[in-house]
Every structure is written in structure tokens, then in C-alpha cells.
Fold:
Amino acid sequence: MSLITSTIGQGLLWGILALGLFLTFRILNFPDMTVEGTFPFGAAICISALVHGVNPIIATILSFLGGMLTGLITGLLYTKGKIPVLLAGILTMTGIYSVNLRILGKANVGLLNKATLLNEQFLQRLPDNFPTIVVGLLFAIFIILLLALFLNTDLGQAFIATGDNEKMAQSLGINTDNMKILGLMLSNGLIGLAGGLLGQNGGYADVNMGIGTMVIGLAAIIIGEVVYGNLSLTARLIAVVIGSIIYRLILLLVLQLGFSTNDFKLISAIILAICMMLPLFEKKFHTRKLLKKGVTKP
Structure:
């Protein structure tokens, strides 16, 4: 039971990263490699601040703001510098590695029993691993509500239109460059926030902790979409977080089958590949229709 509650808590926190990636990958419709630099950057800022006695709430906010800064840099390189978005993200990610080393002073820094959001006094009364679930759930609900509200505003609709059809959006007078920069900032802000929260949960920050995070985020997005099918935009945000939890449970199952944690990156890639091919299988073999018939069959 302890392993399951821990996995659910981890899934909720990773779901925040997946929500950030959803903004660029699904709405703006382009891959942002900045994520693999932003995630450890958020963790480095948060953990370094906590080590120096900064309030956990402020340290967590700083991780979000740090993520927004990396998104701004990538956005400016992409829109103003005319560098392809994939390369712009790689350039930012590469540069952040050295910045993380500067912030931490070394490759890995632990919290050394410092106060965090997850060990606040009122949370310590809960059973083991439940503080992570409570914090993850509160953040996930808050972020989903804010994103749902934002995407239903005029600015949010302009943001969606930019991803759907950039030329049409421009013809309507929308500054698509600004929308892309905004999307990258919001996306990377959430990814930096996830880095800060997961750094607090794990008790450390490491300059290499961002490796493979894009695969984890994409797996959560695609699992959520495959499991729930066609949904409204707000429901898709919820499905992304649920997909993250399912993904972590799949990894737990794999671990219980005797695989080593060293195999997680390979397993993550395999899971993502399978999930990305499921729509093709569904289209070819009509598996979703067969399942529905099976459910409704008397």
C-alpha cells in the first residue's frame, strides 16, 4: 500500500510537468526541448533557496519564475532570432546546465533536513506518503482551474488559435509571436514548478535530473488521451494528470516484476512508443469500438 500511495503522489507531481508540456506539445503543436533544462533549473533554484533558509512557499514560487525565464529565452530565440524551435530549446537547455552548476555550486545538493512544503507541521499528521498526495492534488487542481479559466478568455482563445492555424490567427490580428512566447513561458514555468516540487519531495537537486523528463511528460499526455479518447479541453487537462499517475503505476508494476531502476529510461521510451502507436492500432483494428460493444453486450 505504501508503494502505491507513494506512486500516486509522484504521479500527481509529475502531472504538473505534463500539464506544462501539454501547452506546447498539444496546443502550440511544437516540441520544446527546453523542458530537460528547465526541470533541473527549477529544482536547483528551489533547493538552493531552501538550503539558504528561504521560506518554502517563496522558494517554490521562485522555481516557477525561473522556469518562465527559460521559456522566455527560448521564445525570443525562436520568434525574434528566427532559430528553429527545436534548436532554440536545445541551446537554452545546454546553457542552463552551466547555470545550474553555478546555482548549486556542485552537481548534487541535498536539503539536509531543511523545511519544505511537504514537511509542514499540519501535513506530518498524515500517514506516510499522504503529504505528497495532498500537495500534489492541491497544486494539480489549482493549476487545472487556472489553465481552464485562461484558455476560455480572449487571450487564451488567441493562444489556441495560434496553435491551430497560425496564418488564420495572423489574419485576425493576433500577434502569434507573442502567443508563442507566452505559451513557452507558461509551459516552462509549470515545468520549473514541477522541478521544485519534485526536488523537495526527493530531498535533493541534481544537474542531470532533467534527462528523460520530456519522455515522461509525453507519456503522461498520450496515456491520458488513449485511455479517455475524445474529451473537452478542460477534461483533457485532467486526463493528462491521470495519465501521469497511470504511467507511474506502470513503472511500479515493472519494478515489481523484477526489473532494475536502471532500466526505467528504456522502459519509459518503450511505453511511450507503444502509446503513440495505439491510435494506429485502434484505427486499423477498431479496438475501441469492439470494447464498447463488449461493454454494452447483454
Notes: The longest helix spans residues 176-202. DSSP finds twelve helices and two strands in the chain.
